[in-house]
């Protein structure tokens, strides 16, 4: 999204399971200059864009506490607003591993809104299932499982900061083509032609952040020129995007499983861009999905 937009209304829907950090995110967006409205009924959202242009962007907290919340209705609302040429809409989904959500509820002794008379675990399971279609539709997914509040603030600022800063923030993502290309990515590079570490028994369980996997990917005779050309292209293009007023650029690297080649390339290209002076954040979509199925033993970001 560009810092300067021609749309009349700029909206950010903030959603995700209870306890993943939604309230914290809305407070951060307010600090960035957004007007925050939490727990607004879905039926009232269209009224926000019926009148004159909004004076500033609005961050809307939408979750299961809304009295008329319905996943199908929310998707229909997203589709409707996306088609409206006056509206610039982005959907932010804050995710978190179920084990960490359970721990956060045990620490706060809160009741889950979907299981007021049952265990939080039962409510968390229902909510994750309910929100699954919305998670898929999100423009931005941030997993708060291992994030501190400072980390979350930095992630949000890189994506949503509306203050003119003369800087272009860059996000580099890896993904699996089996699960489809990620939404909101500006440029995608296919890494499936590189030698696949998956077929090496000693590397199969590792991912592209491991030095052994990186070394294997680098050993492909085609790697050096591919890496050089991609890095040089991006370093050439980033100033042009900045001159056009763009505030954030998302770059994707895909491979078959999203575990080895794309992760290694995202890590290495991200490092090259950072060394060239660009603010870079990294996301590995399939590794995040895998981590979300595990049960971490520590919580770092508290929030609704």
Task: Characterise this structure.
With 304 residues, the chain is α/β, with parallel strands linked by helices. Helices cover 38% and strands 17% of the residues. The longest helix is centred in the last third of the chain and has 21 residues. Helix 3 crosses helix 4. The chain is globular, with a radius of gyration of 20 Å. The chain contains nine helices and nine strands.
Features:
304 residues; alpha/beta; five-stranded parallel beta sheet; four-stranded parallel beta sheet; 9 strands; globular; disordered N terminus
Write the SSE topology:
Elements: E1 9-15, H1 22-31, E2 35-38, E3 58-61, H2 71-83, E4 87-95, H3 98-108, H4 120-137, E5 140-143, H5 149-160, E6 169-176, E7 187-190, H6 211-218, H7 223-243, E8 248-255, H8 261-275, E9 280-284, H9 285-292
Parallel strand pairs: 1-3, 1-4, 2-3, 4-5, 6-8, 6-9, 7-8
Helix pairs in contact: 1-5, 2-4, 3-4, 7-8
């Amino acid at each position: 999204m560009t810092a300067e937009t021609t749309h009349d209304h700029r909206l950010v829907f903030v959603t995700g399971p209870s306890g993943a950090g939604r309230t914290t995110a809305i407070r951060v967006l307010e600090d960035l200059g957004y007007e925050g409205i939490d727990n607004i009924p879905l039926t009232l959202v269209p009224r926000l864009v019926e009148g004159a242009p909004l004076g500033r962007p609005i961050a809307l907290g939408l979750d299961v506490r809304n009295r008329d919340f319905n996943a199908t209705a929310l998707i229909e609302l997203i589709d409707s607003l996306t088609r409206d040429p006056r509206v610039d809409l982005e959907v932010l989904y804050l995710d978190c591993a179920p084990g960490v959500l359970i721990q956060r509820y045990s620490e706060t002794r809160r009741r889950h809104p979907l299981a007021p008379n049952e265990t939080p675990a039962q409510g968390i399971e229902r909510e994750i299932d309910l929100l699954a279609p919305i998670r898929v539709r999100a423009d931005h997914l941030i997993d708060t499982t291992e994030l501190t509040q400072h980390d979350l603030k930095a992630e949000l600022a890189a994506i949503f900061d509306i203050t003119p800063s003369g800087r272009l923030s860059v996000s580099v993502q890896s993904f699996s083509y089996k699960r489809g290309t990620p939404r909101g990515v500006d440029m995608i590079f296919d890494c499936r032609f590189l030698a696949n570490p998956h077929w090496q028994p000693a590397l199969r369980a590792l991912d592209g952040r491991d030095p052994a996997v990186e070394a294997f990917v680098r050993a492909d005779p085609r790697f050096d020129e591919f890496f050089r050309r991609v890095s040089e292209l991006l370093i050439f293009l980033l100033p042009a995007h900045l001159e056009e007023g763009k505030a954030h650029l998302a770059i994707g690297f895909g491979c078959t499983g999203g575990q080895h080649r794309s992760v290694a390339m995202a890590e290495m290209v991200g490092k090259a861009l950072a060394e060239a002076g660009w603010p870079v954040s990294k996301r590995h979509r399939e590794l995040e999905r895998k981590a979300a199925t595990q049960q971490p033993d520590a919580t770092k970001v508290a929030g609704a």
